[in-house]
Design brief:
The chain is mainly alpha-helical. The chain has 4 helices and no strands. Helix 2 runs antiparallel to helix 3.
């Protein structure tokens, strides 16, 4: 229990507010609009792990919309200087902001799919072949 309080307190500190005080999906900070989508994603995973699954899923849907919209946003953003390329390795010496955007998009979509699958009862899905591991 102490670890739950500590992790929630740390996430509140990183976000700068308590997302649970925001109850409307249209308000900034509900899931989208936090200003720190990586931290909000961590907060939502914390909500899920502590048993508040319905709220976590609804907030994740809001975050997915925000992250997806920014991924396809054509407005230019300030870019970092070109990354240095290692002479011998051929690898990037430091990652750019754009390199971190795609993994966040992938992670939020994957997590949303997993959570939706988890909350959906397998018996309610027509024509679904149930894996042997679920028998």
């Amino acid at each position: 229990m102490q670890y739950r309080r500590q992790s929630r307190r740390n996430l509140h500190e990183l976000l700068g507010f308590d997302p649970l005080t925001i109850t409307s999906p249209k308000q900034a900070g509900y899931g989208a609009g936090s200003g720190a989508p990586h931290v909000m994603f961590g907060y939502l995973k914390h909500l899920w792990a502590t048993g508040d699954r319905k709220d976590a899923l609804h907030r994740l849907e809001s975050l997915v919309e925000e992250v997806s919209a920014h991924a396809h946003d054509p407005t230019p953003r300030p870019s970092l200087p070109a990354p240095a390329i290692g002479a011998q390795t051929g690898l990037l010496a430091r990652p750019t902001a754009e390199m971190h955007k795609a993994p966040l998009i992938a992670r939020v979509h994957m997590r949303m799919g997993i959570w939706r699958w988890t909350v959906t009862e397998v018996g309610n899905l027509p024509n679904l072949i149930q894996p042997a591991c679920l028998d």
